[in-house]
Amino acid sequence: MAAATSVWRQPSILPGFGIALGITLSALSLIVLVPLAALALKAASAGPADILAVATSPRTVAALRLSFLGALFAACVNAVFGMILAWVLVRYEFPGRRFIDAAVDLPFALPTAVAGIALTAIYAPNGWVGSLLAPYGIKVAYTPLGVMVALIFVGLPFVVRTVQPVLQEMQADVEEAAALLGAGRWRTIFTVILPPIYPALLTGFVLAFARAVGEYGSVIFIAGNVPMVSEIAPLLIVIRLEQFDYAGAAVVAMLMLLISFALILFVNLIQARARRRFGDV
Amino acid sequence: MSDAALPQFRTDTAQKRDTRRVRGEGVVVQAVLITISLAFLALFLLLPLVSVFVEAGARGWTAYMAAVTEPDAVAAIHLTLLVAGIAVPFNVVVGIAAAWAIAKFAFRGKNLLISLIDLPFSVSPVISGLVFVLLFGAQGYFGAWLKAHDVQIIFALPGLVLATVFVTFPFVARELIPHMQSLGSADEEAALTLGASGWRTFLTITLPNVKWSLFYGVLLCNARAMGEFGAVAVVSGKIRGLTNTMPLHVEILYNEYMSAAAFAVASLLAGLALVTLALKTLLEWHYSDSIAASRRH
Description:
The complex is a heterodimer. Chain A has helices at about 15-45, 50-55, 60-90, 95-105, 105-110, 110-125, 130-135, 145-170, 170-180, 185-195, 200-215, 215-225, 235-240, 245-280. Chain A is mostly helical. Chain A folds into two domains: about 15-45; about 45-280, MetI-like fold (Orthogonal Bundle), CATH 1.10.3720.10. The mean pLDDT of chain A is about 90. Chain B is an all-alpha fold. Chain B folds into two domains: about 10-55; about 60-290, MetI-like (MetI-like fold). Chain B: GO terms for molecular function: ABC-type sulfate transporter activity. Chain B: InterPro entries: CysW_permease (IPR011866), MetI-like (IPR000515), MetI-like_sf (IPR035906), Sulph_transpt2 (IPR005667). Chain B: Its main location: membrane.
């Protein structure tokens, strides 16, 4: 019996560790790790000169810039409105609150292609919202602004869903203490309520950002897809693939993954520092 | 003495007002914040959803029925159900196995394993499809071998299933792991001590304990599997009636300017999303204790 335990695992009377871990590792390797390794291999096999040529080509740079800056902008918008939404859902009573609470998760459930054509229909110059903006010379669909609209849609639930539970569990007494000690409402909000929420807000921000960077389905319909202007990085990968430029597609994909992972790692480090200051929230 | 000299004797209403002043915002601020929230949701969620159904019905009921019953649409519906029917059970088995290993045992490298299981969430759907083209496509690493043995993966069902399994890989596991971790192993240990076999313990103790979070995970996994676009777009080849799933069929119709037909098929997917959302909300309302995972995905 004791033979199964080692420095790698604490002893347990429960059976099935071997088979459970075996299934997990096999599936993980075959479905996720080996394919991603193949991507890295393909990108590396292009050779330094070609990698550099793809990475510095104006079209690649423009596409990456649009994807990352667009995702950053959308995540910022979602951070602000997600914060307000979470606040309203937790603190206020109003008719339809539970319905709205449930509706926030719609972007998780609605297929991206459906969201894409629906947003295009609304924000096109002859759509419900687009026709209101057209007289002011504002074009949303088929411009980089349309890309932002789609990215805001897909990232909408993340900040709400990470901030909401923290706000819910916050004790009333700290706010009351702040007020009794003479702090005004705004001062209480910014110095007492918000600081413990920042780590959750940052988590939601990163999740929304990561989702938006790679988003494809909801964007391509509304973007217009003009190279150098409204062409996102995932679309450039698809275009390279359709031209049978496997190495080119792999290099752009690898660049996307590396930049994303570096950013996520950077934010996790900030997060770890914040956790030490405010406790595990 | 006047009332002003005795501030401690105040009416209930005045006290209530003061409590709110200490721990809340004024009516005007509340109204403004609620209005901002509702306007934001209307603009980004409600209008798109309503527009799907309005546009779908733009050409009338007959055109709607024709669009969703024409052979290519029916083939797309069948294919979507088939792909989800393979990918979801696969991820259920792997998700349960992963949760059992991670939640019930203490071993080194556990956090790394959890991060790797979550990895597909941080990978663009397009890249999730691309990796399989690089492996199994005509010019991929195994392309020549597959061709010689007359096996087709890319532009065929296996490719669609692989890409779908990749993007939905974390869903079941990440619902089950926190729930099983919070339950601990005491029940299972008692069953084993009383002489139950490992399988019996799992089937009669563990599985009933986590059934609602499992269902929750399956629900989200299935919604993503049926609605996935980017990953399957790359591996499908979009051959009508053969490798077109519902979301891809929507794209083709839309790009051919058959807007009403595209929205008709899209309305089926939107209906699926609404059913998913309703079931998910019911689970959260009635079994919130049995769904340990935080509600972010």
